[in-house]
Amino acid sequence: TGQAESSDLIAGLDWVTGKLVTGVFQGASRRPAVVNISMTVSSGISAIKALSQMTGLGATVVVAAGNSHENTCGSVNDISGVITVGASTKFDGAAGFSNYGSCLDLYAPGDGIRIATRNGGYGGDSGTSFSAPYVAGVSALLKSKYSAMKFDPPGLESYMKNVLATSNMIQGAPSGTTRNLLHKPQYL
Predict the structure, then answer these.
(1) So where are the chain's domains?
(2) Which of the listed residues 11, 21, 107, 188 has the most CB atoms within 10 Å of its CB?
(3) pTM value?
(4) CATH code of the domain occupying 6-164
(5) Largest CA distance in the chain
């Protein structure tokens, strides 16, 4: 379980934003950009500003909801175009540790995920930090395979929530929380 300072996260987001801006100024066509953040993001003004700039430049930002089984709303998860992801179980239930709330956009697999271990073997782990990259990967596939659709971040968020996700699939989601589950569509 890695840790980082908020200032390190902001520096990383600013670096990506700089690359997006530089590409536009140099006349390069905008390339699809997807950013996964599998850590808790503070709701400070610096984080909100950095994420808003990124989505304003067309980058899709996917964030892990967190693993404290608490309401995740009221932070960067409320920014339009930022996709907030909770963890589901292999039985399509809301993982007991997953954060929740009306700002949660989707659930994705995040409980009992098979991972590579440091000693070269395999093990299992759980957390919304596994769910968010799953959604980021589907986002990248969509932006790449269907580039003619020119998804802006809020449009991609809406498409994933309302077209790709299976509605009312998650069992045991707290009241007021989405029950939509994203599985990678067969056609991607």
Answers:
(1) 6-164
(2) 107
(3) 0.89
(4) 3.40.50.200
(5) 50
Residue 30 has pLDDT above 70, yes or no: no
What is the mean pLDDT of the segment spanning 70-99? 91
What is the rounded CA–CA span in Å between residue 186 and residue 188? 6
What is the DSSP secondary-structure string of 34-81?
A: EEEE-S-----HHHHHHHHHHHHTT-EEEEE--SSSSB--SSGGGSTT
Which of 184, 143, 139 has the alpha carbon at shortest distance from 166?
184
Which stretches of the chain are DSSP H helices?
6-25, 45-56, 128-145, 153-159
* 152-170 residue pLDDT tens: 888 899 999 998 999 999 9
- Cα atoms in the 13 Å half-sphere on the side-chain side of 115: 15
Beta bridge partners of residue 35, listed in sequence order: 61
Q: What is the mean pLDDT of residues 61-83?
A: 88
- Report the alpha-carbon distance of residue 36 to residue 112 in Å, rounded: 20
Q: Is the pLDDT of residue 24 over 60?
A: no
Amino acid (1-letter code) at residue 37: I
**β-sheet bridge partners, residue 114:** 124
